[in-house]
Amino acid sequence: MCPRRYVVDPRLGHISNCVSIGGKEEESNLLIGQLAEGQALGVGAQINSSREHVIGILGKRGSGKSYTLGKIIEGLSDKSGYFNSNPDESPAAICFDLMDIFWTSIYPLSDSMEGDPGKQYQLCSSLGLPLDGEFAIDVYAPAGFARPEDPNVISEFSLPLDEFEVEDWQYLLDVPPNSPSGALVADAVMSVPNGWVDMGGINHAGAPLTLTAMIEFVEDSQVSNNNYQPQTIRAVTQRIVSWNNHDLVTPSSFEIRTLLSPGKVSVFMLNRLPESVRFVVVSVIVRLLMKIRSQDSFVRKRELIEPKWENEHEKTSRCWILCDEAQLLVPRKGTNPAKPHLIRLVKEGRNFGTSFVFATQQPSAVDEEVLSQSDITICHQLSIERDVEDLIKYRKGQPPESIKSGRTEFEYPHLLRTLEPGQAIVSSLPIHPNDREIIVQVSPRVRVHGGFEA
To answer: What is the value of pTM for the model shown?
Structure first.
């Protein structure tokens, strides 16, 4: 069965063989699908990758939102030039995979595959899509959480404790920030580096903040023993001991900077972590990335201003940060350690070459500061009224005057509720005076999509 096509007015008047979303056709672009409107077949739909963006991918479960995020991963990592018009200048990307469905992107489709991957292979083969391309995708699992069945190509990542903030410690140890246990953890984090006095009156000089040093402070400091109940001290000690010497927070050779190479996508598998620890991982890594990119951007700007300036600074690529289930990381109600840093990213990231791509099945549950900063919205089928209202509220493009398919004329909210799987209304800030929203059919993925049930 052929996907539905639409007659949309006003007609697009400036396209050739591709529509570029969020930029110009002559700039670098990622091919994600085809235009699903008009009589001309094969008009490509591509997302600009030369500029920095905040891209929202919205849609109910089964509508294709995670699939579309996977297509962007394929585009960013494509070295063949089929899905990426300028692979050498493609930004690096880091994907926070909360549901562990994108690690399968390391696998090319094969005729030996069964089930959903086998069907995916047959579909791509029938459409003549290239399946032998080269893709730069690495996958990382949290150290200390390895499983015997993990493929050998999956590497491990750990977290640098010296980058932790107070709230990161509280979420790692799973203590409520506003509880006595949370307050004791905060005292330990602030006191160990600055020095403290034990119950015998001995002064302890400031020292690097380690789990062992925190245990010593909690058990023996005047601050803890004079201000907290014994059961609070025991509870906090037990939680710190449970993480002491854990691989996830043990110094290692893992280095974030090495991930920031052009066209390299790094997928971080987070589903096997406790939810509170997932927030810590995102918080720490986003902060590190922003620190690195801010410094590199400053150096690059000075190089452009002073061409004769010599420096030995090792620069990194521009970076896109991607995540699925964004309503968990940047919720409209409540907070977590990652949320303020991601909101800062969407507000300031463009200044130092960093973009944010998020997918969600509940746009009405995503913080409004994130939605309001989006310059591109890719909206698959939505069914909940408040989600439809949010899409209409925060879209950036001009809606069409009329949309028809066969004898059916669609009002905008009706179309949102009846889009076929894989189809999306794409809204972006206008580049040309007469730009409007478009309807896109996302192309099949050419790497294994892990969103199927098994």
So the answer is: 0.93
